[in-house]
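In response to the reviewer comment on reproducibility (Comment 2.3), we provide here a single inverse folding case reported in full, input and output, so that an independent group could reproduce the run without further information from us. The structure tokens appear first.
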């Protein structure tokens, strides 16, 4: 089955784009959501996170102390690598399951903020990047998450620059509030359906 990797830096609008593909009937795997799920359900992973980042990593009710972990990993690249090495294998396994369950679909989408950085693009047949100017991306995330511009910048600094990703990606959607997003998604959907028919 044709697999499309969908990415974009923080606040680019990749989740928004993914939702449009879903409306067109395409199964989408959200790596971020899956990471959130396994980090509170996988007992071995939970233990490993506590060992690495302290007991404060979880609240008494079992939910993840996201602020505590974010403060550690987005201030120290080595700590972020440690967290990625713990979480990503479980996310990769979940994607394999989704793929197995989506046999009837013409193609599937794997949405991930760090598709290129994590190497998961290698499991995709094509890659699609959503782009937007940095100022717009920052403003969107500040509005959506209520975090400061500095916090957004720290995360952006841990991601491969958008310009580099644009060179690696096969397809692009420009989400700059000037060009319309839905027609761009529909055009790519037709292209992917044709490609899926040739596989
Ligand atoms: C550190 C955590 C707890 C912070 O949680 P928080 O609720 O503040 O942020 P959230 O998860 O909603 O992420 C917001 C954005 O931050 C950026 N971001 C998140 N994880 C990463 C990462 N590993 N590397 C670079 N950027 C990241 C992305 O642009 C993401 O969309 C959380 O991001 C996390 O557990 N990250 C590790 C899991 C992971 O790699 N997720 C990303 C896709 S698999
Ligand atoms: N074209 C647009 N017009 C207006 N608002 C938009 C547009 N695209 C995205 N947004 C808004 O900007 C915010 C960021 O978009 P979205 O969550 O899709 O980005 P993302 O790339 O998935 O971000 P992250 O990497 O932080 O998870 C959301 O609140 C979304 O509703």
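Designed residues, in position order:
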């Amino acid at each position: 089955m044709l697999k499309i990797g969908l990415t974009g830096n923080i606040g680019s609008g990749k989740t928004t784009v993914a939702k449009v593909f879903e409306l067109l009937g395409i199964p989408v795997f959200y790596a971020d959501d899956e990471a959130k799920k396994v980090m509170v359900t996988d007992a071995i992973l939970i233990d490993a996170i506590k060992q690495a980042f302290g007991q404060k990593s979880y609240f008494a009710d079992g939910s993840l102390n996201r602020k505590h972990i974010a403060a550690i990993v987005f201030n120290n690249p080595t700590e972020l690598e440690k967290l990625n090495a713990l979480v990503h294998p479980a996310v990769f396994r979940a994607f394999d399951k989704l793929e197995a369950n989506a046999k009837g679909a013409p193609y599937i989408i794997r949405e991930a903020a760090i598709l290129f950085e994590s190497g998961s693009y290698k499991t995709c047949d094509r890659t699609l990047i959503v782009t937007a100017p940095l100022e717009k991306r920052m403003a969107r995330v500040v509005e959506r998450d209520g975090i400061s511009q500095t916090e957004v910048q720290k995360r952006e600094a841990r991601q491969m620059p958008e310009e580099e990703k644009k060179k690696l990606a096969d397809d692009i959607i420009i989400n700059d509030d000037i060009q319309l997003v839905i027609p761009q998604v529909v055009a790519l959907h037709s292209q992917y359906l044709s490609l899926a028919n040739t596989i």
